[in-house]
Amino acid sequence: MSLDAHARDLVTLKRRWRVFRRVLSEPERTALDFAPAVLACSFEARGLKADTPGAAGVRPTQRWAALAKRLSLPVPLSHQSGRRLAASMFVLHDDGTARVLVEPAEAISTSLVARIGERCAAATELFEKLKLRVRFELLRPGTLSPAELGRLRALGAVRAGTPGRWLTLAMRAAVVTEEQRTAWIPHAPTSYCRVRLMLGTSPAFEAPKADPFAELELLRLELVRKLRKTPLFDRPTFRSHLKRELLPGGIPQSLLPALRLASGEVTRRKAPHLEVKVAAGMVTLCLPGGALFAKARTLLQARARALLLAHALWGFVPDAWITGPQWKKLAQRLGSERARTTVLFALGHEGSSLALRLRTGKEPRMRELDATATLKHVIASAANGHQVEVVGCSQAQELEAIRLSQLAWRAAANASEALSLDLNGRTLVYAGGRFKSYETGRYLERPRRAVPLERVAAPKSTQPLGPTVECEAVLDGDRARLRYRSKGWAFSEHVSLDALTSHLQGAMSICAQHHERPRFVLHLDDAITKHLKSGRVQTAPPATLEVRGDLTRGLVVMHQGQTFGSRELRAAAETLLSAWPVGVRGQLDIRHASVSVGGLHGEAIACLYARSLIGRRLSAHIDALVGLNGRERRDERVFEG
What we know:
By secondary structure, this protein is an alpha+beta fold. It is about 40% helix and about 25% strand. The chain is built from 21 helices and 28 strands. The strands form eight sheets. The chain has a five-stranded mixed sheet. It has a four-stranded mixed sheet with strand order 5-4-3-6. The chain has a four-stranded mixed sheet with strand order 14-13-12-15, with helices on both faces.
């Protein structure tokens, strides 16, 4: 190897430290700035008190005292005398840990090399106590594999000293495979390095003046070609690396310096005017010089991408680009990084909103939604595990933003259950990833399992009572509507006023017989309270029944020693009808229910659900038999099939 080649490697490795230092965090930068002092000074620690090996080209400076104070270390003492045993110090990043590779000087004894190794082990232990991920290693011929030597030449930097000729020769002679180069991508310190590694070219810490990949379209084309050439089993890894390097609109982070130059000097009050161009179904936002800034299918998406790109370029959004309170609120929220998918809702007039979906490594999506669509989107996003942020763009919208946020919290907490919400006389149910809308009266015709998102505030909290079943009774026309709640599980049913007293007594009896012994807490409105206090006596003959079985495998009904299965309810209805006088419609009295769910003990509310379900089915068959319901064929298909 010629001297010129060796000198070029030395210049590259030493100059690289300046760039490498700029991309480090503050604790890492302080620790690596102080790393040469560990070999040249003494400390009050085991293995670091005296007999310092020293490093070539390192002299004590007053700056070390300030760095030691930042690291909570005592002021180091210089005791360097004689030959410096370390020829050079390399810095290399590996899985978030800074590796400091110490090369011993040439022609020193084995005992002196061992002394350097002891000092490296003591320094590593010291930094571990300081909770700094810095590891010192001894660099000797044969300790590094060809892949590590190639990575050291491509991504390493000389912190101090001058590496030996044998080391630069070994780094140049190292043969590296394509798979090994791909494994370097997460450890490259700059975006420019990572993109060059993905393209298969030699990595560089700083972009040269004539960058062949400065043009956006050319770089996109090269990345797509590289992706197609990648073997199928390596494509998922390549895609994951590519997603981390892309900004909104598919712009790689490596092009940020070129965009900053094209945009000129930008402040909050002074910003370039973006020109809007519409062609071939695409909206393009360009800088005054014609450079592409953002592109999307709609103007809203393009503006959202422009805001995100402005945060990446300058750390703020210019005031001239904020044309309303919604965009101002969005600009404040878009600058923070998020670990998972986030959906932002900027509220507008009459409950409408701008919904922005942000996914890690994906392009943002923005849509305009009306009030109903906003409500549905909030519930669906929270139930799917996404983070929901609701932004009120005016003071009058703060209460609505709080309400939507509470709905999102409840939907996220009960994501595995069906969710219900009353809205303008209709009931929305979200289950299985889709919404169903029912008229509220039809929804309450039969028991349904759902968790109500807008909880009705009880007069008093029932939490101190232990296990409870809450029942809210309100007057609904000529019937009473009962809604049961227990442990986040809820359902509703309608009961005639004549049978209300007996029905409530049956519910109390079922709760008293349950193995959990839950309290039955009753909330009545004024009309129901007046009806119950009137003492109206039920005159219809009762039919005593008992419900048993499993909710998922089938229920059975017992009446006077006879047992009727789930497909024999019509026969049970005929038996009950024959026991009543002609022309008299009796009442079903179910005060015993022992129900399991999937083979496990059912809760008290499951027993009440089974009682309501059986009562409704039997009533439908009885109505069909006496001619009160003209849908006999449909009822048989629904209740027996």
